[in-house]
Amino acid sequence: VSHVNELKYNKGRYEMAITFFSEAIKFNPKEYKLFGNRSFCFEKMQQFEEALSDAEVSLSMEPNWIKGLFRKGKALCGLKNFHLYTKNKPQTKERIQPPAPVSKKQGKP
C-alpha cells in the first residue's frame, strides 16, 4: 500500500515540476537544462513523446550534453524505439582513443 501511495505522491510532484519548468521556460527559453529537467519529469510520468521532444530541444541547444543524450535514450526506450538512437546519434567532435599499450622494458640480465 505504501508503494502505491508513494507513486501517487511522486506523480503529483512531477506534475507540479512540469508546471514550474514550463513557466521557467517562458522566461528563459534558451536554457537547455530546463528542457532536460522537464524531459525527466515527463519520462517519470511515462509521457515518452513529450520527454523525447524536450530532450531533442535541449540537444538542439547543447548537442553534446550528456544528460540530454541520456534523457533522449530513456524516452526512446520508453517508446520502444531505442534503435532510433543509434541510427540518429550525434557525432562528437573528438573520438576518445584508448590508451596506447605500455611496452615492457627489457630488464638487464
Question: What order do the helices and strands come in, and which of them pair?
Answer:
Blueprint: H1 2-27, H2 32-44, H3 48-61, H4 66-78, H5 82-88
Helix pairs in contact: 1-2, 2-3, 2-4, 3-4, 4-5
Task: Walk me through what this model shows.
This protein has a single domain, classed as Alpha Horseshoe (Serine Threonine Protein Phosphatase 5, Tetratricopeptide repeat), CATH 1.25.40.10. It contains five helices and no strands. By secondary structure, it is mostly helical. Helix 2 (32-44) runs antiparallel to helix 3 (48-61), helix 2 (32-44) runs parallel beside helix 4 (66-78) and helix 3 (48-61) runs antiparallel to helix 4 (66-78). Mean pLDDT is 80; it is low at 91-98.
Record keyword descriptors for this entry.
single chain; 109 residues; mainly alpha; Serine Threonine Protein Phosphatase 5, Tetratricopeptide repeat; 5 helices; 0% strand; TPR-like_helical_dom_sf
| Topology-level CATH name | Serine Threonine Protein Phosphatase 5, Tetratricopeptide repeat
Q: Shape, please?
A: globular
Number of strands: 0
Total of helices: 5
**CATH superfamily (homologous) name:** Tetratricopeptide repeat domain
Structural class: mainly alpha
CATH class: Mainly Alpha
Helix/strand order: HHHHH
CATH architecture: Alpha Horseshoe
Radius of gyration: 20 Å
Mean pLDDT figure:
80
Helix content: 55-70%
Number of domains: 1
Question: Which percent range describes the beta-strand content?
Answer: under 5%
How far the N terminus sits from the C terminus, by CA atoms, comes to 73 Å
Pick out the low-confidence regions. Answer: 91-98
Question: What is the makeup of the main sheet?
Answer: none
